[in-house]
Write a structure and sequence with these properties.
The protein is α/β, with parallel strands linked by helices and 311 residues long. The chain folds into three domains: 4-92, Orthogonal Bundle (Arc Repressor Mutant, subunit A), CATH 1.10.10; 95-172 and 278-305, Periplasmic binding protein-like II (D-Maltodextrin-Binding Protein, domain 2); 175-267, D-Maltodextrin-Binding Protein, domain 2. The chain has eleven helices and twelve strands. It has helices at residues 11-23, 26-33, 37-51, 67-94, 111-124, 137-145, 193-196, 209-221, 235-242, 253-261, 291-305, and strands at residues 56-59, 62-65, 99-105, 128-134, 151-155, 165-170, 175-180, 201-203, 229-231, 248-252, 265-267, 279-284. The strands form three sheets. The chain has a five-stranded mixed beta sheet with strand order 4-3-5-12-6, sandwiched between helices. The protein has a five-stranded mixed beta sheet with strand order 9-8-10-7-11. Strands 1-2 form a two-stranded antiparallel sheet. Helix 1 packs across helix 3 (37-51) and helix 1 crosses helix 4 (67-94). The chain is elongated. It comes from Bradyrhizobium iriomotense. Residues 9-66 form the HTH lysR-type domain. Keywords: DNA-binding, Transcription, Transcription regulation.
């Protein structure tokens, strides 16, 4: 049960405490907030009286937080962040949405889901600019931790997902091997991996889970990985290359189905076993989330739990 004084602390007092911690002195905090030094000292004294302990230690002209002060400051920052996000969210909803939302994409197998979420968010909040950034998972998670990316769609690999990150699992889409419509391998009644790897391939970037999975499979089959390869993380580039030259490539089954219907390629009978790591939507568990990112996450989670749409 929370102590009674927790209900009596005012936002004004918390803002004063944050200003003192940020500027390191009562004088500079007062100048920053355009109030008197006496008003700053009074706000600190009021909170210290409420909780029954000192928040700051005075050392000459400097002032540093006590252990209790650090706890109060940490909570004050969370309150300030939540209020800021609340304000942004109210403005976002009332004005039809605004701002920049950066989404990292490491797994192209969920492009259909991402496209549906983007369409829904843009329809409801047309002023939100959504930027989709493709990269390897380590790079995207580094950008996420630095606050330069809001959300990441990628493989939920245990070694990379430390406690500062959280996420929701998405049903993984299997990969298939596709070939250009006029590829010579399609004329073989029963093509095998050794024969296939002698052709030109379009492969995922080194270090990505699907590339490592493919390499592990070839090693298990004692087949050399393709020596003639084009490397890309772009689904659009893969589709364009498939229509330009005889090529083999790896593609998520749902995306490959779209390409087949559009005359881009053909799915080969070569089997690629499923992987263990699920795909997920990943976000920071410690940093405040922007209002537009919250909306995007909510729409994604809603679609994950929604019943399938009958065609």
């Amino acid at each position: 049960m929370a102590p009674r004084w927790a209900e009596r602390i005012k936002l004004r007092q918390l803002r004063v405490i944050l200003a003192v911690d940020e500027h390191g002195s009562i004088t500079r905090a007062a100048e920053h907030m355009f109030i008197t030094q006496a008003a700053v000292s009074k706000a600190i004294a009021e909170v210290e009286t409420l909780i029954g302990t000192e928040l700051f230690e005075r050392k000459g002209r400097s002032i540093t937080p006590t252990d209790a002060g650090h706890h109060v400051i940490r909570t004050a920052r969370r309150v300030a962040s939540e209020l800021k996000l609340l304000g942004e969210e109210v403005v976002l909803i009332s004005e039809g949405g605004a701002g920049l939302l950066i989404i990292g994409l490491q797994a192209i197998s969920i492009l259909q889901l991402v496209a549906r979420v983007v369409a829904t968010v843009k329809a409801r909040h047309p002023r939100v600019t959504i930027r989709l950034v493709e990269d390897t998972l380590p790079n995207l998670l580094r950008e996420l931790r630095a606050g330069r990316v809001n959300l990441v769609f990628g493989r939920m690999i245990r070694g990379l997902l430390t406690p500062d990150l959280d996420g929701a699992q998405i049903l993984s889409e299997p990969y298939v091997v596709v070939a250009s419509c006029d590829h010579p391998l399609l004329r073989e009644p029963r093509p095998d991996w050794e024969e296939a790897c002698a052709h030109v391939w379009c492969l995922p970037l080194p270090g990505t889970p699907i590339r490592e999975h493919f390499a592990d499979l070839m090693a298990a089959l004692h087949v050399a990985v393709p020596a003639r390869a084009i490397e890309t993380a772009s689904a659009t580039t893969i589709a364009t290359l498939l229509q330009t030259m005889p090529l083999l490539a790896l593609a998520p089954a749902n995306l490959a189905g779209e390409w087949v219907r559009g005359g881009v390629c053909t799915i080969t009978p070569l089997q690629l076993p499923a992987r263990l790591e699920p795909i997920g939507l990943i976000w920071s568990a410690t940093a405040p989330m922007s209002s537009s990112a919250r909306i995007f996450r909510s729409e994604t989670l809603a679609m994950l739990h929604a019943p399938p749409v009958e065609s």
